[in-house]
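Anyone up for a design puzzle?
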């Protein structure tokens, strides 16, 4: 199963899907630092810079298009412009690309706030484009991380797959005991809020490392690969890989 990647970042989704057994055909990423990371780890993959300049004229056919479009206008930390905002409004470009390339599958990721700030429009756009959709909110903690990092994942299917359930009801929302353990470890504190165990093992600290700010920003935007891998395996198991 081949996939194309939009808003690739440093390749969190791509790495996860490759671990699941898929092959990356092309990537689209505008950030210069992220481009260098991608060039190092995917030197043979075709790469494009601006999503507004890609489409069926330069992107090869793929089974799946994946991507997490910008969340700045959706996030509760932002101004709340939603899909009308300059950054999150790039959803329109992702939709345009999906409509032009016409993959059998699409995997869309964003922050949990999308459920209240634009989910209906995203699902409506996919439905108008001929795609049926399933979705749920997955925390990174369900895959071993020491933080929740809840993200919405939408799986859209078309053609003969449109009525094929890929996610069992409640399957994505079922958390292992480890998640409850981290919840219990959080201690309420009137000054600092919730206190969590040290998380230095995931490399989120700069400590004077060159380009530390860029690295932290990219890590903050990246999708946890273990989550994408789980999604990829479900997609392969449910669709029979690259066969219709």
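Challenge accepted. My sequence:
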């Amino acid at each position: 199963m081949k996939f194309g990647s939009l808003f690739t970042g440093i390749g969190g989704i791509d790495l996860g899907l490759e671990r699941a057994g898929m092959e990356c055909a092309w990537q689209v990423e505008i950030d210069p630092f992220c481009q260098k990371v991608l060039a190092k780890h995917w030197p043979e993959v075709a790469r494009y810079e601006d999503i507004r300049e890609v489409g069926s004229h330069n992107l090869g056919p793929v089974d799946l298009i994946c991507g997490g479009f910008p969340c700045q206008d959706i996030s509760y930390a932002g101004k709340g412009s939603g899909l009308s905002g300059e950054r999150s409004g790039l959803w329109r470009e992702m939709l345009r690309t999906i409509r032009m390339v016409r993959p059998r599958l699409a995997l869309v990721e964003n922050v949990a706030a999308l459920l209240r700030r634009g989910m209906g429009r995203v699902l409506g756009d996919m439905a108008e484009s001929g795609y049926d959709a399933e979705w749920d909110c997955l925390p990174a903690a369900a895959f071993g991380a020491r933080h929740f990092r809840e993200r919405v994942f939408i799986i859209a299917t078309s053609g003969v797959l449109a009525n094929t359930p890929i996610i069992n009801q409640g399957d994505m929302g079922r958390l292992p005991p480890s998640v409850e353990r981290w919840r219990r470890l959080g201690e309420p504190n009137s000054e600092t809020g919730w206190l969590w165990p040290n998380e230095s093992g995931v490399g989120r600290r700069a400590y004077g490392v060159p380009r530390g700010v860029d690295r932290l920003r990219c890590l903050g935007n990246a999708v946890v690969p273990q989550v994408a891998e789980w999604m990829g395996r479900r997609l392969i198991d449910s669709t029979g890989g690259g066969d219709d």
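A detail worth pointing out: The first strand starts at residue 2 and ends at 6.
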